[in-house]
């Protein structure tokens, strides 16, 4: 469940044309997470085929699809809106991975790796949203002394 070498190279989000979503590191990482989720859900019980397995697959595909759709919309406002939707779907994915782990459908190691991949995608999404001014930057308070 490790990232491939191409996906680990620097954050290319600012250099990519927004229409070419495949060059966005966040899309690449979300795509690899989706493939890993599909592989993991193959091991779920057949009784979950139309339940948690299908919902988890839909949620993770939604992350990838919304990043791509937002990048292809042609406006910064639309990109930001779809990045927020992707972030919501990612949160759903991570919650469902936790459920799958707690139900015993994923072992702790596999669930931890998938959740870690999801957290990485989340950090990239948050960074992209911050870069667009959609999330306020944290400001550190100046140090004060009582001299």
Give a verbal description of the structure:
- With 147 residues, the protein is an all-alpha fold.
- It is 63% helix and 0% strand.
- The longest helix is centred in the middle third of the chain and has 27 residues.
- The N terminus is likely disordered.
| Helical run tally | 5
Order of helices and strands: HHHHH
Please give the radius of gyration in angstroms. 17 Å
State the total count of DSSP E strands.
Answer: 0
User: How much helical structure, as a percent, in the residues?
Assistant: 55-70%
Tell me, briefly, the overall form: elongated
Strand content: under 5%
Reconstruct the topology from this structure.
Layout: H1 5-8, H2 25-41, H3 52-72, H4 76-102, H5 108-131
Helix pairs in contact: 2-3, 2-5, 3-4, 4-5
Concise synopsis of the structure shown:
This protein has helices spanning 5-8, 25-41, 52-72, 76-102, 108-131.
Descriptive terms for the model:
147 residues; mainly alpha; disordered N terminus
């Amino acid at each position: 469940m490790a990232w491939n070498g191409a996906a680990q190279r620097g954050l290319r989000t600012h250099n990519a044309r927004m229409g070419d979503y495949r060059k966005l590191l966040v899309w690449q990482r979300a795509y690899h997470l989706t493939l890993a989720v599909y592989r993991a859900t193959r091991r779920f019980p057949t009784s979950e085929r139309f339940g948690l397995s299908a919902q988890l697959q839909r949620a993770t595909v939604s992350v990838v699809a919304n990043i791509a759709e937002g990048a292809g919309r042609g406006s910064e406002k639309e990109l930001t809106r779809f990045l927020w939707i992707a972030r919501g779907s990612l949160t759903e994915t991570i919650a469902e991975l936790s459920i799958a782990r707690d139900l015993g459908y994923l072992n702790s190691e596999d669930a931890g790796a998938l959740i870690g991949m999801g957290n990485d995608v989340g950090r990239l999404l948050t960074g992209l949203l911050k870069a667009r001014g959609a999330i306020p930057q944290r400001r550190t308070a100046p140090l004060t002394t009582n001299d």
